[in-house]
Every structure is written in C-alpha cells, then in structure tokens.
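YCR061W-like protein, Saccharomyces mikatae IFO 1815. Tokens?
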Amino acid sequence: MVRFVSILSLLGCAAALVIAHGDMDMDTDMRPFASVAVSPTASIVPVAHEPKHLHGVPILQSPSLTPAERLYWESYNTTTYFTTQAGNRGALRFHIITLVLIAFVLYPVSLALSAASSKWYLPLLLVNLCICISSVVALSVFKSSFPEDEWYAHNIYGTTSGLLLVLMAVHFFAAVLSVPVSSESKKDYHAVDTIPLDDLESTPVIVNSARGSPSPSSNRDTLFSLSSDTTTNNNNNQDNGNINSNKREHIDGEEETDSTSNHNTLRDEDYNDDEVAFIEAPPLSARDIPVFRVLFANTKYQVLAAQLSYAANVMHHILMYPLFMYIFVDLVIGFAVGNLLGKGIRIFNLLAHWIKGGVFFTLGVVSLARYCGFGAKYGWAWNNICFTSQLSQERSSNLLFRFAPAGTFTMESIESFLIFFYGSTNIFLEHLAGNGGAWTAKDLQHVSIAFMFIGTGLCGLLTEYKLNHWRFEHARKHSHTDVVAATPGYSPNPFPAFTIFWTGILMSQHAQSSQFSTTIHTQWGYLLSYGSFFRLLTFLILFLVPNTNCTASKPFTELITSFCLLCGGLVFMESTDQSIEAMEYRGFTPMFTFNLSVGFVSLLMAWEMILFIWKDRLIKTRKTSL
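Tokens:
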C-alpha cells in the first residue's frame, strides 16, 4: 500500500512539472523550475490586459489594422480652422465666445424678460443686437485675415451669420415699434373679487378668449383679470346660481362693480407659480422702459409707431421663437464649417444626423418647457383648460384657435403633424447621397423609416380626430359654464411616443462600419426608446389621476422624458461618420461622448428650469408692485 502511494506521488510530481513548463501564461511565482529553461520572451513585462483600440489607445497604435486601414489613418489630417494658427485668432475667439453667449445666455434671458413684460426686455434686446453686430464683424475680420485656399469652398456660414444679423435687427426694431407708447398699464390691471372656493370646487379654469385670460370660474381663492387697451373681458358666468354678476369688465381703464364688491389687495401669497404659468404679465408702460424714454416721447416716433405698431407686433411675435432656433442653427453650422465637417458627399450623412438629432433635441427642450409651464394657457402644460363662447370676435382673430376643434389643438396633434410632414419630405432625401444611382439596400432601409413616419404621423392625426369628443367631454364634465372648447391637457394618443420608440429601437440595431459607431448608435437609440416609455407612463398617470384644474400637472415622468430626448438627440448628432473618425483617431471610447453628453444635458436642463423659475418670480414681483 505504501509503495502504491509512493508511485502516485511520483506521477503527480511529474505531471506538475509538465504542466508548469507547458503553461506559459502562469505567473512566475507558480513555476519554481522556470529559471532552468531559457525563454525568448524573457523581456516581456507581464500585464493582465494589453491595451486595445477600444480602451483609449489612438488608432494608429492598434495592432489589428489592415494595410488599407493603416494607409487611411496615416494620411488623416486633424488640421481645422480651430486648430490652425493661420488668420486672426483673436477675432475668431471673439466670434465664438459672443455667439455662444447670445445662444445660451443673452437671448434666452431676453425671452424670459419678454414673457414677464419686464422693462429691461428692450434694453437687453439692444445688447443682443450690438453683440451680434460685433460677432459678425469679428467673423469678417478673421475671414479677411485668413489665407485664400480651398479648405471649405462655398460654405454657407458667412451667409447664415449675415442672415442672423438681419433677423436680429428686424426683430429688435419690430419690438420697439410694437410698444404701446400711450398705454397706462397700472390703470389697466386690477385685482378682482375673491370667490368662495366652495362655489368653485372641482371647476376647471374658464378662459374667455384665446389669449388665455382667466375668468371668475377658476378654482383658486383669489383670481386675476387682465385687460389692455384693445381687450375687454365681460364675465357673467353662473355656477349653479352661486356666482353673481358683480364682477364687470374693465373698459378703458375704469372698473365697473356693484356696491357689494369686496376688493382684496394682491399679495404674493395669494397665488403660486402654477397660476403664474398661465396668467399673462400686465402690460408695460412705455415711460417705464429705460434707455428708450426719449425715443418714445418723440412726436415723430409716435406717429410712425401708430402706423406700424400692428404689423410690428405681428412680426415681433412671429420671429421670437424661430429666431431662437435659428441662432442654434447658425451655431451648429459654424461648428461644422470650423471643423471641416460635411465636405463633399459627406454633407448628406451630416445633415441626416444633425437634422434628426436636432429634432429630438428640440423636442426635449419643449418637453421640459411644458413641465415648467410653457403653453399653459393653451393646455399644453398637462393642464385642464376650457374656452367659453364669449368674446367670439377676439377668439376668431387668433389663428391658433380659429379653426380649432372642440377638443382644441393638443401638443400631440402638433407632434403628429410634424412627424407626418417630416416623413413626407424625407422619402427622397435618403437617396441624395446616391447621386442618381441605383437604390441600394441601405437606401431602402432608410426610406422604410420615412414610411414609418408617414404612417404613424397619419395615424396620430386620425387618432386626434377620434379623440376630439373625448377630450372635450373629459375636460368640461366639471364645468357649469358655456364651454365651446376644452382639453384635459393631454390626449391619450400613443403614436408620437410610438414613433420615437421604434426609431430608437431600429437605429439601435443598425450595424455600422465599425464597432465604435455601432455602440454609439445603440446608446442614442436606447435613450429615445426610454424617453418614449416614460411619455406613455405620463399618459397613464394623467388618465388614472386626472387633473381637473388649471395648474400644470408636472408629472415626474416628463423630467426623465426630457432628459432622454435631449441626451439622445445630442448623441444622435455626435454619431456622424466624421465625428466617429475623429474620436477613433484620438483613441476615445464610446463612453467619452456619452459621458460628456449626459453632463452637458444635465447643466442645460438646470439652466432652462432656472430661467422659467426666474420668469415666474418676475411676473409675481410686477403684480405685487401694482
């Protein structure tokens, strides 16, 4: 028995020696006899994992490149307008800084001041115009100092920048001419009587005109009535006989009430931010606006303003938000030209990613704005709102509601129309890169997505038509007034979210020329899908717990939806072929762009919410000071 055990021990030692010499990956401490053999790889330093291309090493250091790939990357040129030292660098830096300042700070702040009817709106708009002029001049200085070459021949950035300056100037002068120089805002704005809450329980706000002025049928303790030189608000609504007609409209700055009226002083604690979201700020007197007092007092200006004020007011409001979007269009065009992106046939890949990604990014901005109260007077902030038949003449003058159905135009109907329109225009755009050649499988794959947009957009419009009566009845069932149009603040129309969901799913499965590009497409595809999922949860929450008052619902799911749309749209724009190549050349990983996008979007959302909170505080401050 002892001999048998000894034989097994000897065999075990022999086997251990064979394994120790045969396993070249084993640690040296586990191979006591390794020093006996002379290895040709003795100079290799042992590491757990050797770095590969996807782990942060520039692509030229990758050992897996084919000869054709190495030839391409060795000729890759990183020189751009931003990296070269040619031209007036100071002028270029000044142009970049001022344009970014206008896009992210000055013009957004001016929009907040405009919504609050602040006296500083026109002065800041003048500052915007002056900085825009200096920015375009700096761009011209840089272009004149840059040596003539063919870096980016026939680019349109100079044209778009000049057009931006023209639009800024037109918008500013229209804003100046639209100021009612003879208005007396402090006489036109009045607090109205307090209505017992018991008489208005579960009653949605009743808006007497498309302008969104609240009537005495609101379910708040203290209500407000706004009027101007051109607007009257005659409310005699009855609520089961409890609301009498002791509240009259303010005509020509004079208030008509009976002897039983009990006026209250308007105080900050009488209302909250949700009410401010749909109540328009009181009109501003021209004499209160700094810098422009002398101009407004001029007789010649007053004559000119009297002739052009209506047209100027229309132009001012038409340009306000489109100009904000155009500033960012000009910004991204400058970024593309400065980095030499989209040259030649690559322009189609750039446009495809930036237009679609920009659409989702814009949708994220609008979604967050709706959460903060944007569009509340139209029922777009997830709030219940009704429109009475009074002031039919003023209602018909508003194009948005002149042809509106009983269920009004919801944000879902607008989204469905835009999806249908975009899909219709995108059918042949997908084949532009083919330059008239035969349709390829890739072209057909992209066109099928355009067909999906057409189909889902059309289904969304038809669903809005079918839900029209449901929205009307769902919103007015607690109202006892003469309601002609109403909306609960949402429409359970799944097709806009459905379109975004399947766009994300399809593109997340869209194989690319490199694993790097495929991973980034998967990132933004999943982000869009997650956003649409939380949008459906918003519908579910509002359906189970309906909002029966005028204040915004503020569903928490919309914050996540906004983040997913913003971040998904931004990563979508970053997934162009040339952007992918730039990151691969420098050895960045797919998480590089993802991490930067998450951080940027978080800061952007915080800044947008700050602006809305500040705007609401400005409105409160103006109301309490009157």
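Strands lie at 190-194, 206-207, 222-225, 247-251, 254-257, 385-388, 483-487.
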